[in-house]
User: Fold this.
Amino acid sequence: MSDGRNGPGRRQVLLGLGAAGAAGLAGGVPAARAAQKAADAPRGHGETRERQPFLGEHQAGVTTPRPAAGMVAAFGVIAETPDDLERMFRTLTERIAFLMAGGPVPELDPGLPPLDSGILGPVVPPDNLTVTVSLGDSFFAARPWLAGLRPKHLQRMTAFPNDALRREACHGDLALQICANTPDTAIHALRDIVKTLPEFLVLRWKQEGTVPVVPARPDGETESARNFLGFRDGSANPDSNDAALMERLVWVTGDAGEPAWAVGGSYQAVRIIRNFVERWDRTPLREQEQIFGRKKASGAPMDGRKESDVPDYARDPEGKVTPLDAHIRLANPRTREFAEHLILRRPFNYSNGVTKSGQLDQGLLFIAYQADLAAGFIAVQSLLNGEPLEEYIQPVGGGYFFVLPGVRGAGDYLGRTLVEASRGSALS
Amino acid sequence: MKLRRLLISGAAALAIALPGLAAAKEEMLHLVAPIADYKLYVAENTEKLVADTEAFVAAVKTGNVEKARALFAPTRISYERIEPIAELFSDLDVSIDARADDFEKAEKDPAFSGFHRIEHALWDANSTKGMEPYADKLLADVKDLHKRIDGLVFPPKVVIGGAAVLMEEVAATKISGEEDRYSHTDLWDFRGNFDGSKKIFDLVEPLVSKQDPAFVKKVADNFARVDATLDKYKTAKGYEPYDKLTDSDRTVLAAAVNTLAEDLSTLRGKLGVD
Assistant:
């Protein structure tokens, strides 16, 4: 009778389990049945209920404010006919509409694999998810029945002088930009689409990233998030809440000379830009600031006090305050004529692991949107060629894509205008 | 005679594998014939594997590199057809078919043996030097495998699940061309894996065709797509090397393989095999 429930049993001690082992056995079993307070999850504030609208003239995820987690995944597409394409786009539309709205996952017979990965639980939370679908140049190039329908600026990304493009991280027939409040929600969406569309989509590469949440300041000043070089990134980004401005800079409009199906879409430039962070962190602060053209702590321009101040280059024609080859001065000279080159940036920071040399593989998943790829990203990047920052960065992947117009209502689907146009051209 | 014996032992094996068969669901009884047929298929393949390996090993041991190279891929194909069953003997699967990256010291690891050890010597060193013990072991292993099949109970879960497992194998570690990385004979292995998966599907197809004709058609269409794609690479003696596979054909194959893996993963559930 000495084998009390709460004490070590004589037999167990004799067997060599010792007091600790016996406690684990004898004491642990009843305790495990008691209700435990789950307390190992980080606490949120209801963000998982945040939802972005799926329907609209334009797809979500372009002018939508950036949430904390972002990803670009690129695929090869198998679709030999307009009918294949319609089936693919309708399935994709149905999945994205569900994932963005959230809701319970239908249950199946447990003898079958479940419909959903389950990584977000039985009820999928919307969590601010957006999934933005875009098409690459190769998608059109491989399909003669789409002849004449390729957006006029869409092209295969070619290397800029500082690029060291890795074949396995470039291009693609179709890209998904997946953003959400948490990386798990983005991963859940990707796994859902990979599982649901295996006959149409073959995954080629993906890059995930994050962007730190910036708390609101009491004085109402909004600050940009920092990149992995420690600088605020996005200070001069056009205001994505200004619909008229977005119509001019980001969205393809009816007078752009683009195929009619493409109206409401946008060009997407994706660049995976490695940052040599060890070397950067060994660079004097003054030099870092001269290279960027901003003060590191505040994000203010060299002649300014706060981040939102606009640099006055006219008063500094020789670059004594802001060097002429500073990153922000090359990328946006703030002249009236430059307005047509403005792009909407939506980048995320990435951290991938360790290189063979034992250095951190970190950088920027750069994503930019514009109504005209040539006047936008390509023109801006050409201005940056040879900038001093190149010593610390190296683009290694990415591609150019065209974001499909939005889904306007029930019965509509992503890519409908393209599918219908392809049928039209097949008949003519 | 032999067929009959196999059929009987297949049915008996199934009876052992299904506890409480007397009370088992009626559809389980339907599985007796397909599983017996499958056992016959496996036995035919291991028999061929032994015969082919004998010739392959003889070429290796006599230092005939050219002949050994020619026999490498056709010898493996019968093993690739029955991989889900071979994996029931994990000791043999490791010594017959492990890859260099399964070992800490990769190609230099003395424990690295089997087909790929010899493949490495034939293509990388262009020689059979030092391969005699590996050749002897390979032959002993495949003979052992063949012998064990006869007495093996074929669990329905492994047989029915094997159709998807073969596709998972291709999708996860073969489509990239990493299986036969020295000889680039991967398309032969694909052929074997598809044959093996299709065999299982064909055997149980009558059991699902009534309840789900759309499923059967979709799976059959994807197998046909695979056949058409692989056939483009057929040569007089077999298949082109993997590096001849174009990006677009690899994409078509990858999509078909992933779709087959996805669809065939429901086969156990559809047949009530837990």
Remarks:
- The interface with chain A takes residues 222, 247-248, 251-252, 254-256, 258-259, 261-262, 265-266, 268-270, 272-274 of chain B (CB under 8 Å).
